[in-house]
């Protein structure tokens, strides 16, 4: 003979939750009485009296809580397959801090969880480009400093900038000369609050044109050929409003270190009236490029390159200013990291120079970024084009492939 289960949360033999009608009826019954009701949640139920009310409510809470926990586990498993733990923590933490208290918080959060890159927050603004150009102008005005022998310090900051730093309580450290050659000078300065340095290079080339040098630096396909350290380099997404691009770059690091990968946004500008070109890059998080256990993700990275032609974009000779910083997340002491960057930066610039010469002398086809204009769109346009650079060049207008 089958033993009858006591009346409770799951009914007699249905194992289903009680409806609110059954709970109300149970509260009205004497302690030792039971009643068979037609439960709306699952048919006939035998419910107990008031003595079983506490058990009913406790079981009801356990049932609902169990459903919520299982649902949360399923969501966690889904995102666990898409992102590593550190990626989820960084993405959600940065998003929450950025959007907290702003209008449209919920919609932006849903966009991020849905895997949409928020260009309104991450695109490189005109002000960032202009700051780099202004710094180049300041160095040019003080060019006599670079012509002196035995220069040991970077030119002092303008008075207004020094006062601004003092007012904000974050006065920057002075620049220290690291390398001083005829056409190449390298400085560094500590980044406040970290064990890292920011580096600055001021140099000159006279055997290639600014256009050639600029194009070779931007062309991702050509870089895969001349830079042996590149494992992967591709455009992930392009913003048709500003011309900014998100790139994923994976590069070898010296043995025995793991390879590093960078996800960064870049934007370039060519000002033919003022005879200057600028390229600005900085690290971002992108939902389509989760962190991989094969590489170490570099989350702190900034680079600004400004090029000033001596005459024009198509005549040999130009000055350039490169400002660079990143956190490669190594366990080596500070002086070791400084030595690697100080020696690696001149080596990279020389490889870039030689690649430009090779493209010039051998007439290797390199995309002409100066002639390629970002697509003209209205101020309200927010469309983006996720693609590889070669596959969707049309999204940036009619690109003209010319000899560098």
TrEMBL record:
Subcellular location: Mitochondrion
Positions of region (Disordered): 147-174, 375-404
InterPro entries associated with the record: START-like_dom_sf (IPR023393), START_lipid-bd_dom (IPR002913), START_lipid_transfer (IPR051213), START_STARD7 (IPR041949)
Molecular-function GO terms, alphabetical: lipid binding
Function, in words: May play a protective role in mucosal tissues by preventing exaggerated allergic responses.
Domain START intervals: 170-361
Keyword Transit peptide: yes
Single GO cellular component term: mitochondrion
Keywords: Coiled coil, Mitochondrion, Transit peptide
Biased composition (Basic and acidic residues): 150-174
Pfam families per record: START
Name under which the protein is recorded: StAR-related lipid transfer protein 7, mitochondrial
